[in-house]
Specification:
The complex is a heterodimer of chains A (275) and B (90). Chain A is α/β, with parallel strands linked by helices. Chain A contains 9 helices and 12 strands. Chain B has 7 helices and no strands. Classes of the chains: A alpha/beta (275), B mainly alpha (90).
Chain lengths: 275, 90
């Protein structure tokens, strides 16, 4: 059976690849991603299953899924002109994707299937930093975190639990790590951006609060607090927290081995040891 | 959500480099490829962020107008336009 070896959470700020290119791997951002990357490398990760929210690039309002699992063999990225990154075709994990798709459907979810897609920065920035040698396969599991109505936090937590069980039952020798991509407080392009930038962090206290919950393993409390209204109060992409909540569902009662908060930037970095 | 075509325009800016180049070059084929009303097109051409947001444009997608410099928008103009709604609401 497949083995789950680690879980990690990271932001996907599109300016970060260029920033680290300019400032070097010893910059704060470079070191934070490097710490998380080493956790994945040390345990020999073959496949990264990433809970993610597309930024209306891979999908659009003509047909916007609340939950989607790509079954394609590979996908090009980035599709949204993010600077400072090498565009490439990322190998996906169609065998595992079929297991997840059928497993979730059997458990009562309604995931959409995507047999052809391209990837935006919300997936590609984490891959840029976490897999620079480009050896991992990727399975993004898309949750709608941007366009209300958002999925319920409790459903996302349950989804994570079920995805973990499906992976553990997958007949494969591969080592699988889980990831969450996204911020806790961030407004992009909306009325609560900063006075001199296209983005802003409207609610750094929410970042600190969420981070405290994550550190302490207080998932039930966080799920109860993470209503659509509360997450949107933290910014128009505040629903990305749902990706972390899905990850927490998979993580269970474990507390993070690594946790670094950047409240002023709206996000945190975390890693959980699995065994 | 009430501005599908404006959102489509802003989505295409992000994911379609040919569309983006055509729009920035003022190419009529690119501009005409999204069925905008005259008012919508005028607002996009002049990067009237306040008007676009007031007429239902998705705020996240609106930021692509700034990212790619449609209508010569500056960060000051963008911020003033999008935040004018906060002022309206006191």
């Amino acid at each position: 059976m497949a083995e789950i070896v680690a879980a990690v959470g990271v932001p996907h700020t599109p300016a970060f690849p260029g920033l680290v290119e300019r400032e070097g791997p010893q910059s704060e951002t470079g070191q934070l991603y490097g710490e998380i990357r080493s956790r994945l490398e040390d345990c020999g990760t073959d496949v990264l299953v990433m809970f993610d929210s597309d930024h209306l690039n891979t999908f659009f309002f003509d047909n916007l899924p609340a939950l989607s699992v790509p079954t394609a063999e590979q996908a090009p990225g980035t599709n949204d002109g993010t600077p400072g990154m090498r565009n490439r075709s990322v190998p996906l994990a169609p065998g595992l994707a079929e297991q997840v798709l059928s497993g979730l459907t059997a458990k009562g979810y309604f995931p959409s299937r995507s047999a052809k897609l391209s990837l935006d920065h919300s997936v590609m920035v984490p891959m840029h930093f976490l897999d620079p040698s480009e050896r991992m396969a990727l399975l993004p599991i898309y949750l709608n975190g941007l366009a209300p109505p958002l999925p319920a936090a409790a459903a996302c937590r349950a989804l994570g639990e079920d995805v973990r069980a499906i992976i553990e039952a997958w007949d494969s020798p591969l080592k699988v790590a889980l990831a969450a991509s996204g911020s806790f407080s961030l407004e992009v392009g909306g009325p609560r951006i900063a006075d001199n930038a296209i983005a802003g962090v409207p609610d750094p206290e929410w970042v600190r609060h969420v981070s405290r919950r994550l550190r302490a393993g207080e998932t039930a409390e966080l799920v109860a607090e993470a209503t659509t209204e509360r997450m949107r109060q933290a910014g128009n992409v505040g629903g990305e927290l749902l990706n972390w909540i899905a990850l927490l569902g998979a993580v269970g009662t474990r507390t993070p081995e690594v946790f670094e908060q950047q409240a002023a930037l709206g996000h945190s970095y975390a890693a959980w040891r699995w065994s | 959500m009430g501005a599908y075509e404006i959102d489509l325009f802003n989505h295409n800016l992000s994911v379609d480099p040919e569309f983006r180049a055509g729009v920035l070059a003022g190419d009529e084929q690119a501009w005409g490829s999204v069925p905008l009303t005259a008012d919508e097109r005028a607002a996009l051409e002049s990067a009237d962020i306040a008007w676009l947001y007031a007429h239902g444009a998705n705020d996240f997608l609106l930021h692509n107008i700034f990212r790619f410099g449609v209508g010569g928008v500056t960060i000051q103009n963008y911020v003033r336009g999008i935040k004018s709604h906060l002022a309206d609401r006191g």
